[in-house]
Amino acid sequence: MASGFGVRTLINLDLFTDAYRVTGKAKVGAGGIHAELANPNTKYLDIQEAYISRIHDPGTIVASYQTAAFRKDNINFILLQDRREGIPVGTAHGRSIFTRGRPIPVFITVPSFEIEGEVIHEGKPSVREIIIQSVGNFQSVFAAKASASQRPDISYSGDLILVHKDRIGVFCLATHKK
After folding, report:
1. What digits encode the pLDDT tens for the residues 65-80?
2. What is the DSSP string of 40-87?
3. What is the CA radius of gyration of the chain?
4. Residue ranges of the domains in the chain?
């Protein structure tokens, strides 16, 4: 990932709404995808090379476009294969997310999906504290898997899933893994 003021880099991502999966690339600055999602100057996230498929039929691309924009409040979650693309680079906070705290297994529901993985948290495990202390409007879930609630055989895995906090229906902490 490039660094420096004003330098922007393309990252690969999968973006999920209630009914669709969009595979594409987003241009992000030094603040990473969190800064793009938190940008108060736009309600949209721009995607390049967008391939759109339905959640219930992920193998069929129904449309593809060179550019697309998605309303941020309509995004259920974003899946990244490399967690480093999901956090700000060159900051103490960015480095510490890998080393501070301990992994806590979680189960989260959003419309059409169930998400399992781990959050990294310091202190007493509490859903309220975890949500309050996470960056911006998206909760980071590491080593994550999202399964379609109506078709659990359809699932997506990644190093990091950014879950839109306003779209969370249920957030559970596990004291141990299955």
Report:
1. 999 999 999 999 999 9
2. TT-SEEEEEEEEEEETTEEEEEEEEEEEEEEEGGG--EEEES-GGGGS
3. 16
4. 9-171
